Request: fold
Amino acid sequence: MSGKNPHEIVIISGKGGTGKTSVAASFAVLAAGRAVIADCDVDAADLHLVLAPKMSKSTDFKSGHEAVIRRETCMGCGMCVEVCRFGAVKLLSGNQYRVDPVACEGCGVCVRFCTVGAIAFPERLCGKWRVSETRCGPMVHACLGVAAENSGKLVSIVRREARQIAEVKGVPLIITDGPPGIGCPVIASMTGASQVLVVTEPTVSGEHDLERVLTLARHFDIPTSVCVNKWDINPEMTERIEKKAEAAGAQGVGRIRYDRAVTAAQIQAKAVVEIDAPSAEDIRSVWEKLGFQTRNQKQGEDE
Amino acid sequence: MIIAVASGKGGTGKTTVAVNLARVCGTDVHLLDCDVEEPNAHLFLKGELCGDQETVSIPVPEVDEALCDGCGECSRFCEYKALAVLAKRVLVFPEMCHGCGGCMRVCPKGAILEVPRRIGVVETRRAGEITLVQGRLDVGVAMSPPLIRAVKAHIPKEGDAILDAPPGTSCPVIATLRETDTVVLVTEPTPFGLNDLKLAVAMVREMKVPFGVVVNRAGSGDDRVQAYCREEWIPVFGEIPDDRRIAEAYSRGELIVDALPEYRERFRALWETVSGGKLTDKDRYGQTQT
Reply:
């Protein structure tokens, strides 16, 4: 019953594919069992490919409802089409209507206003979330259903579970791998976090997206750090980005070089810091600059 | 023809494929940047802003307190918890509202009106033969699908349109891919790329949109993506090799086909394939054959 209020670092990027998950997996290894890991990129979760979790508990994620027209009761009056704001009701043929489950936002307006009560409103299964054990400690991860909605809510559940495990086990740190973008699941990943690390890249897109994600972090008033991955692809841009980040109140915590070993590690299902790679040193240095300590790594050579 | 460029994983090269295809397709084309959380196509195409910026709003409730008797019917109805009644007063949380209009319809006193809440803007630019329409979500706004629909309202009745989708497989992507003719899934030959490609394939199959794959950074990882596509009868529309010069040109905001002219032919061929010239029906539907 110890470990009140664990520290939570959320890793985000704005732009996708900048190396969030590779950094998060390395951090999980560097934390050496003293962290709970939360994969909040529920849309396209990848962390499990490196951390190889053993599933111990899987729970359905039900969220909201979906409208389903009962054909036998429907009179074909078309009221549902009229009231639906999402264009989700389609006229099939004659006077047969059908709700497109992908377009339905589950607002319930058609259900309420159907003149003959022909629309059912069952709960919607939107995905699953799991608590697993990995070589780096407990991990909470999730999988959003195909073409499902409410990823923000699923992110909130993953974080809540991770926090609970950290509190019960007295683990002082939560490492959260966030989704790309700045919308609903990103907002759900950041709300109430202790610290944000933005992993960006020295490209025009990376720069543009960083500005937006830093504005979001400021909006939530969370201390934010920035690291530039593949910095040597464009050194001038790296400098420009670091200056901009600083001007926006974010702390620079170093650079990670462009290194094909990052992909090689992924193919071996290892974190970058678990193989002998130049970029592994860079990631360790980012970890230390963030204020975390590195324990002696089995394979890591000391400088 | 409406072609959407998407991917499960972020950063695989969606925008690269979309802008370079738009440049080589050789006709008047609309490029619609539906990645409204992080729109990037304009960084590569530049171009002149034309017309006024269009503000996009969703309707959210406003309660006329003179008429409201605090009965709570609206908050009981709302599936998104965008209204709450406390001490007979209605509190509205506009950021939760999807704009369904249900509360207004169910209010027995007619005390609810709708007022617009701004969520972002749509801008149109002109770059040579390309008309670029781009949505930009306001920072702090969670809900992007209505803005994506506003961008898609600019799809021309005739001619070609290329849609640059956001990454992932959830609501914003679905809003983008609905009612398109072909989806190009851009991936990279890595375990993350393959895992997220499978999620994206499940999504487009569920949506019943014809699709195929472009392998970016080909040669940088292993061949499991290609093997997967073979096994699943998914057409590979093309490959873009792993070339550090491409990454560098990209970093500076340059189009590959301009900075490295030797790639022009490759994108030209990709366009031919994607726009249907060389596809059989089986290819176009990417169905699993037995």
Remarks:
- Confidence is low (pLDDT under 50) at residues 284-290 of chain B.
- Chain B touches chain A through 57 residues (CB under 8 Å).
- The first helix of chain B runs from residue 14 to 24.
